Amino acid sequence: MVDVTFLLLLYFMLTTTFRQAEGQIPGDLPKFIPPHAGRPIVIRLHAVGAGRAGVLYEICGVRDPIRSPQELYAKLTARRRQLGSNEAPVIIIGRSDVRWQYVVEAFNQAVRAGFAKVGIDPGIPGVPG
Asked: Which residue, 3, 6, 54, 113, has fewest beta-carbon neighbours within 10 Å?
C-alpha cells in the first residue's frame, strides 16, 4: 500500500506542469467622498422605461430631470463654472434597479466636466438631494 502511494505521488509530481500565474490589471474603484468634505453635488439616477432600460439623471438643486448624458455633461460643466473650482465633490447615487452602465456614464460625464473628486455610492443617509 505504501508503494502504491509513493508511485502515485511520484506520478503526480512528474506530470504536473507549473504555469505562471495569470496577469492582473491594476485598477481601483472610486473612493467614497464623505459629506463633510464640502457641499457635494449629488447626482441621483432613477430607472425609467420598460424593463428599467432607461434612466433619468437628477442633480440636487436642479428641478428639471436630465434625460441624456450630453445634457448631464452640460449641466455639470455649467455648475463647475458657477462654482469657479473643480474641487466640489460629486457623488453619484444609483439605486439597485438602475443599470450599472448608467452609473458609469454619469461618472464619465462628471470626470469629463472637469471635477476632480467623483465618487459612487448606493445611498448616503443625510445627504441632501
From this structure: 3
pLDDT single digits (tens) 6-25: 999 999 888 887 777 666 66
Domain membership of residue 73 as a residue range: 30-121
Stretch (H or E) spanning 94:
strand 90-94
Burial class (CB in 10 A: 0-12, 13-18, 19+), 14: exposed
Count of domains in the chain? 1
Instruction: Report pTM.
Output: 0.64
- What's the rounded Cα separation, in Å, for the pair 91 and 45? 11
Which CATH number do you get for residue 114? 3.30.420.270
Q: Is residue 19 part of a domain?
A: no
Give a yes or no: residue 10 inside a domain: no
Over residues 29-50, the mean pLDDT reads: 72
Torsion of CA 79, 83, 87, 91, to 10 degrees: -40
